[in-house]
Amino acid sequence: MLDRRDFVRQLLIGRGDLLVVPGLGSATYDVAAAGDHPLNFYLWGAMGGTAMIGLGLALARPDRRVAVLTGDGDMLMGIGSLATIGIKQPSNLVIVVLDNAHYGETGMQPSATKDGIDLVAMALACRFKHARSVSRMEEAADVRTLLHRGEGPILISARIKAEDVPRVLPLRDGHAIKQRFIDALNSVR
Amino acid sequence: MHTPVNIEANIETSWPDAIYAQFRRVGIRQVGYVPDAGHSRLIALCRDDPNIADVVLTTEEEGVGLVAGAALGGQRAALLMQSSGVGNCVNMFSLLRNCGFGCVVLVTMRGEFGEFNPWQVPMGMITDDVLRLCGFLTYRIDDPDAVGETVGAGCDMAFNGNLQVAFLLSQRLIGPKVWTR
Question: In this predicted model, what pLDDT tens digit does every residue of A44-79 receive, in sequence order?
Fold first, then answer.
């Protein structure tokens, strides 16, 4: 099982111009803890929508890589979006599910993945080009390579420990988060 | 034998084309939809356009995320749905309000003029109110000749002002769903 903070930090080393969409709750805190960046579109709500934001962005910017980092609860709520993404086959989109099999934000109630509901199998059934689970830190470098060069759509289920970690709270004003992202995206190249 | 009461034949070749012309004018590049019979021609026009990515959704709320992602990437997006789909979007609409994403939603109305299926009525009768409670400007359109200018004006407001604008294409405009045995 992975330490979520270490794993996310490993994924975002040398991130360059990677566009990152973290899902609400712990994923947003993990991405913030790895280092604030204008190309992070932090979510504080819109549960179930993270993967679709990634799709809209990936379709709009086929020249850039898009990484969705989110929790199992958010992915499960938007599970139909795996089919929607599977149809469009965005080659520049990678979804990393930080899967602790629990709803961490609300008191660690078990999620569907706790009972063996298999996100990797669902992604493959939805015609993702590649999907697998990882549970060892030595695999972080492989996942990082997939973020930057893997042919998408890709889904990685990262098995992380179910534990509370200190919250790291980034920007919370949606307009500011959006505008900072757009300005940064427009200023590069 | 009788002629079914509907005005679909006329409509099918006019107002969807007027909406599509506005999509072209304002540069819509992504269109998300859950299919509806009333939107069938507009969907076909969008699907045939190589400049528009058509995204068929499993539920309408996915479209809200799509719009946000498109806007982050510098593209304008529109959503097509039936009135029942508006109810599926309510919490996700908060994304548009919180961040100020310009958005246009074209809603084909059910559950009103000449509706055969009473199961469509509860959502149809609150669709306008729900959209307004969620922060949308709403424009109801009954007259086929008003579709183009209304959608055009609303698109300009949405994308110039980062506002959320919905067009309610009334069941009288679309024509009641024709049920055959």
Answer: 999 999 999 999 999 999 999 999 999 999 999 999
| A90 vs B: CB within 8 A | no
- CA-nearest residue to B61 within chain A is A49
Provide the whole-model pTM. 0.95
pLDDT at residue B114, as a whole number: 85
Q: Where are the beta strands (DSSP E) in chain B?
A: 28-33, 53-56, 76-82, 103-108, 137-141, 164-169
CATH number at residue A76: 3.40.50.970
| Model ipTM value | 0.97
Determine contact: A57 vs chain B, CB below 8 A. yes
Whether the CB of A22 is below 8 Å from some CB of chain B: the reply is: no
CATH architecture of the domain formed by B8-174 = 3-Layer(aba) Sandwich (3.40)
- C-alpha to C-alpha distance for A172 and A177, rounded to whole angstroms: 7
Checking if the pLDDT of B4 tops 90, the result is no
Section B25-45 average pLDDT:
96
Domain of A22? 4-187
Instruction: Check if A48 contacts B (Cβ < 8 Å).
Output: yes
Count: domains in chain A: 1
Closest CA–CA distance from residue A69 to any residue of chain B (Å): 14
A50–B65: do the CB atoms touch at under 8 Å? yes
Strands B76-82 and B137-141, how do they pair? unpaired
pLDDT (mean) for B119-136: 97
Task: Write down the pLDDT at residue B152.
Answer: 98
From chain A, pick out residues whose CB is under 8 angstroms from the CB of B35: none
Residues contacting residue B52 through CB under 8 Å, at least 6 positions apart: B23, B28, B29, B30, B31, B46
